[in-house]
From TrEMBL:
Lineage: unclassified sequences, metagenomes, organismal metagenomes
Pfam families: HGLS (PF07063)
Biological source species: viral metagenome
Recorded GO MF terms: dioxygenase activity
Name this polypeptide is given: 2-oxoadipate dioxygenase/decarboxylase
Documented EC number(s): 1.13.11.93
Amino acid sequence: MIRLGDKFRLFQNNTKIYRKILDQYKNNIIGIDHIAFRSLYKNSNRFDNNFIIQKEEYNFQEYNVKANWYKNRDDNKLFNRIFNSYYLPDDWNRLSMIMSLENYNFGDLYTYSDYQHIHKENQYVAWTMIHRNSINHVALEVDNIEKLVEKMSKDGYTFNTSNNEILNVSSDKKLIQASTTSCQFKYYFKDGYHDVPYTFVEFVQRIDGREGFAESNANKIMHTTKK
């Protein structure tokens, strides 16, 4: 069972960019929109009974990944939504191999070259094998995402783009999202320390109380840890 408060405090302590953005743009931020987790197989992340799984299921065929989202029973809580994705291995042998590595640090077994090979094949798997069940990213709700992105860009922040566009807009135009480029993390492999993608900050604007997520938007956000 994931203790969300503990995971979030650890994320805050380890993530300078998140703390910096919260402090620098606190007047533009409404609160936390959602917290995103990644996992290597279904049901490896379990959340307490305050979170109700929603019916929508999202598919990301490029990475063999599916996702669900969870809604908090209590709308007044700090954490209203969880976006939880998981890898679907091609075969049982691969799943067994992944599960057998759960109790080991990836870097104790593999070199940076091994990591690069896995990353080239599937960056989602590479990220998750290193960072395990830690928070992938936190999304902040804002009331004017276009204005905030413009302001942050002038302040020197860089954003993930898709077709040269920073803003990801759902088909109903009521969910707008953007994400900073991924910050790097020094990770120890068998052959020493190397930089790997860690986390980023996402921004979300919901119009007319729009709930849930949009698969096309989420797919673009997922690309953020490619670099």
